[in-house]
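User: Fold this, then the next.

Assistant: Folding the first:
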Amino acid sequence: MLKILTLNNISVKGLERLPRDGYEVASEIAHPDAILVRSYNMHGMEIPETLTAVGRAGAGVNNIPVDRMSERGIPVFNAPGANANAVKELVVAGMLLACRNICQAWDYAVHLEGDDSGIHKAVEAGKKRFVGFELPGRTLGVVGLGAIGVQVANAARALGMKVIGYDPTVTVQRAWQLSSEVEQANSIDELLPHVDFITFHIPLLESTRNKINAERLQLMRDGVVILNFARNGIVDDAAVVAAIEAGKVYAYVCDFPNNLLKDHPRVITLPHLGASTREAEENCAVMVADELREYLENGNIKNSVNLPQVSLPRTGVARLAVVNNNVPDMVAKISHDLGKAGVNILRMVNESNGRLAYTLLDTETEIVPQIVDKLSATEGVLKVRVL
């Protein structure tokens, strides 16, 4: 029986992917084989010795100590793209809220007083304060062309906007999904002078912190709208507010309220709603539950942020999975130890991803505990499992 610890409420549709005859799933559980998490901050958490995998029901993994997991040979799975439609819809809504001054107009209407005749007169007198502009013909810059960025870019094209995208690491898969009408920029600085709106769909790293700052704001057109539904810290909030006060930026729409932003008349802040739809929560939970189950039962890896993707169809009597530091001669050592024990390898795959490597192999005979102990004692080996 495999034990799964849940650190947040996980959609029932996801939990249903873990059959009860093989899995025990609970929010309080000792010696878990895996953890399912959404937003819970795991950085101060003691990592159980039994832990084999972590699944994040979402895309970002800032709340998970990935480096500590890597040191233990524990893959961290996420659900890229499962919330893409939800975020795309919110970005489109954010552009409309900003360019049509909808939040300011709604606030004006809410605070109208008097009888209906007086309110009607106030509406006609006040509506000119909220004149906006339309999206067709405007240019959107999309920074980050992963699952979300591609959907945002394509939706903007469908709305009649011109789109310029920037992503130096765009995958072949995402490139095939991207509208051929999306133009390519070679850098953010190349993109900035040409856009009326800009939206970010990148992780928060030291290299992406304050991607929009005071210097880059000066490169942008007057009246630009900035949207951040990715991660707090990608945009320098203070610099953007200063640019709004100076008339450089028309509006700022983001998912990360703070005291500087929440009451500003030209800023729209939402309470981190990017993936807050029933559909997105279900999609994320189903995807990550399937990933965990495939790894726990078969050793295959898909959508891990710290281990390479590996898929090997089952053959033979037993399956061995080894996570190790990415150092020379490790595959030879594994093969040598198995050979000395009289275990013949039928099929094997070995992949690396930066500092870690992963070997998955099927054998003709059972793998006895002594072999596992021998491999586990090898310098550089982090985790050994027999499946």
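Now the next one, as you asked:
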Amino acid sequence: MMKSMTGYGKVSECLGGKNFEIEIRSLNGKTLDVSTKLPSNYKDKELEIRSLIASRLERGKIDFLMSYTVEDAIQEGVKINEELLEAYYKKILKIVEKLDFQPDKNLILTSLIRIPDIQRLEVEKVSEEEFAEIKKLIEQAIDNLDSFRLQEGQNLKKDFIKRIDLILEYLDEIEPLEKNRINIIRDRIVQKFEELKSVVDFDKNRLEQELIYYIEKLDITEEKVRLRNHCSYFKENIDSKESTGKKLGFIAQEMGREINTLGSKANDAEIQRIVVKMKDELEKIKEQVLNIL
């Protein structure tokens, strides 16, 4: 099934008194590029988390964010050096007594608590049981992102089919114009030679040979056949079980070559106008192909 590289997945869960929130976003990219933002106590699990993401997501720029809050955030991991705090406090009280003014004890404590080494944050080590549950949450977030990618991919699929069908319709419009084009070119060349007959002598047999050679160079039958085949091949690969983005990109390039050759061989204003419309649809296809997994 066709998938977009753009996606979003989110999971929120309470584990052991901690409210975890996991988000994962993806954008288009040629390779897998994962960036993570984790709580400090999960930094040593980063490689495992990256490996888990890489095993599920093939390509794209991936942003992974994990955070959590606890019910008593003030006490979580925060330790106060009470002996040092008390020593600072007593020292300051002695100083203010010498200066003979009434101190604001609350203000003193508030200021002291900000001194380095008074507070220290002890990073809680993550247990294997907790991390096992976290990995399940990560899997759920990836599943949600994958569902988003699949939904976006189906929207892109409809758009591709519509534009491919338009290119084929434009190709059908060229058919009647092509027959008239050859006759017009032949008559134009013959007319020019007829005008020059009085001043230039030429071999009619040679002229006929040159006309055939010139008209064969302008023939666009092969280009039309190849373009139809490329369009059919593109539609066949839309529903491939494998990643199709790069392959569809290559097919679109081949379609572009045939359309460009049609335009260069056309030698007809109406056909050129149709070719421009085909190029416009193809450019829109190429833009969207970049976002296909």
